[in-house]
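[Structure tokenization] protein backbone as discrete codes
[Encoding] learned vocabulary of local backbone shapes
[Protein] chain in single-letter code, fold in tokens
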Amino acid sequence: MDEIKGIARAVIRPGKLDAYKALCEQAMEIVRTKDTGTLQYEIFFNEDESEAIVYERYRDIDAALEHFSNIGHLMAPLLETAEVNGELLAKYSDKMMLGGAGPKLYQPWRVFQDLK
């Protein structure tokens, strides 16, 4: 199981929703046109659009790193629009950039996957 899953949680800063959405649109376009190993990239909002969750799946750690490299220029502007934190759901890899303000890692314990 080399797949990497990520959950980013954003609390949108007051008056910054349109800017946050515009940055998400840019990220989505990068996923569609540049990422080669992104399997899933979905953005969800709560009812009043004050909070968002981005659910991400990558083929492996290299695909996740490629994605972060492709969208790296969006991170500073994104953090101006929202307070963001996240979790990685994956086996540990030395390539992961964890610690500080980075995502928390949750490693698999029990897994069932129906591939039908």
Q: What stands out?
A: The chain has a mean pLDDT of 91. The radius of gyration is 14 Å. The CA atoms of residues 1 and 112 lie 11 Å apart. DSSP finds two helices and five strands in the chain.
